[in-house]
Amino acid sequence: MEKQDVLTIGLLADEKPEVFYSLDNGQGTFLYNHNITEVSVIKDENGGITITDDTEKTTGKMFKYDSVRVEYPKTGDNIFATLLTAKYSTTKESKLVNEYQSAVLGLLDDSYKEPYEDFLRERLAVRSSIDADCETYNVPIDL
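The chain above was modelled as a monomer; its predicted structure follows.
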């Protein structure tokens, strides 16, 4: 599966988004909304919104989140595969692995190990987060 334009990062909403949002398109497609955090914002008179840490300038709260469009089936494994592929194409992942292995063999500097190790750490964190959401919302991990 190659990278698709299914991932949107840094969305803002006034209301907390549903973690699983059905698109009701008759094909079982849904949005998996994740990394949901409440943020302080400054809203200007022209409709502009700026996220801020300055409590004195804050004019309100919103929810910042990322969203990935997932096709049927609604399972943790499918969500994970879709999200991982959206973030890392197979070409990118292969490059990270090859550079890591080259560094292990001494063909490249040890600094080439770090990007792949970071990828593996992120992969584990994403899997853990998806599994927790699936457990909370009674979504099966696999079919």
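The radius of gyration is 19 Å.
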